[in-house]
């Protein structure tokens, strides 16, 4: 059964009828206030269990990992500094590849649009018409 539940900030969301309450766990600081983890720590926690999750990360998440402090990232992952640095380099390469792919797609779209509206581009049908005129002029 689905119910509308009130969330912390007055938001509404659908939640399944459960025995345990839905909560947002966040670590508490020494002074009792709730403290959010930096994004790089969250990303590292996700990757610690399964490194293949990196494939589905957003550009922003990859950039957070690429820009993170290597020492802290290595500690968060429970890996060596070399591993953390290699991960950061891989994240940056993947980001660069995504940018290059987007640029190539944009260029192809631009070319396709220009090709479709250009009066100087011959289509297959116009080639056939020109070819048939050429043949008839020889007769």
Automatic annotation (TrEMBL):
Residues 25-117 form the DNA fragmentation factor 45kDa middle domain. Gene3D superfamilies: C-terminal domain of DFF45/ICAD (DFF-C domain). Residues 14-39 are annotated as: Disordered. Pfam families: DFF-C. This is DNA fragmentation factor 45kDa middle domain-containing protein. It comes from Pomacea canaliculata (Golden apple snail).
């Amino acid at each position: 059964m689905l119910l509308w539940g009130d969330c912390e900030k007055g938001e509404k969301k659908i939640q399944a009828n459960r025995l345990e309450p839905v909560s947002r766990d966040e670590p508490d600081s020494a002074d009792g206030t709730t403290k959010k983890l930096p994004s790089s720590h969250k990303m590292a926690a996700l990757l610690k269990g399964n490194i293949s999750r990196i494939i589905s990360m957003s550009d922003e998440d990859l950039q957070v990992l690429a820009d993170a402090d290597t020492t802290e990232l290595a500690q968060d992952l429970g890996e060596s500094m070399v591993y953390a640095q290699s991960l950061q380099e891989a994240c940056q390469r993947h980001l660069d590849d995504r940018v290059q792919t987007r640029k190539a797609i944009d260029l192809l779209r631009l070319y396709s649009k220009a090709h479709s509206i250009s009066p100087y581009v011959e289509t297959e049908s116009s080639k056939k018409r020109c070819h048939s005129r050429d043949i008839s002029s020889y007769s």
